[in-house]
Structure to design on (121 residues):
């Protein structure tokens, strides 16, 4: 089943950096899933969501690291999650931060379905 929608090109940047740091040919990995490096040049560009997912899988396979995604996340600098990180960091509680993120993500992504439910409700 194909996943519809798109993802920001920023979604692949951390994996690209990890591949380069490991000395792995990131352009070869991109080519293996049909992504042109030129598409990644402008931050406003988007990729088919399915292509982004295939890229992360191919990057993990090329690295030989079964925990590739976790290891990439561990190295992300502060601010890497931009608006999402900001919304969570300025909220008075985690719950309010998550509500702010859900409120922001819903109109920005067709790939995420969110529901708010209060415990005990």
């Amino acid at each position: 089943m194909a996943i519809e929608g798109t993802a920001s090109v920023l979604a692949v940047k951390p994996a690209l950096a990890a591949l380069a740091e490991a000395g792995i040919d990131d352009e070869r990995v991109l080519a293996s899933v049909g992504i042109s490096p030129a598409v990644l040049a402008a931050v406003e560009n988007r990729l088919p969501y399915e292509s982004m997912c295939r890229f992360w899988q191919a990057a993990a396979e090329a690295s030989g690291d079964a925990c590739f995604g976790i290891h990439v996340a561990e190295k992300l600098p502060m601010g890497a999650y931009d608006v999402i990180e900001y919304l969570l960091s300025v909220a008075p509680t985690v719950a309010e931060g998550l509500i702010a993120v859900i409120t922001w993500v819903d109109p920005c992504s067709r790939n995420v379905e969110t529901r708010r439910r209060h415990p005990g409700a």
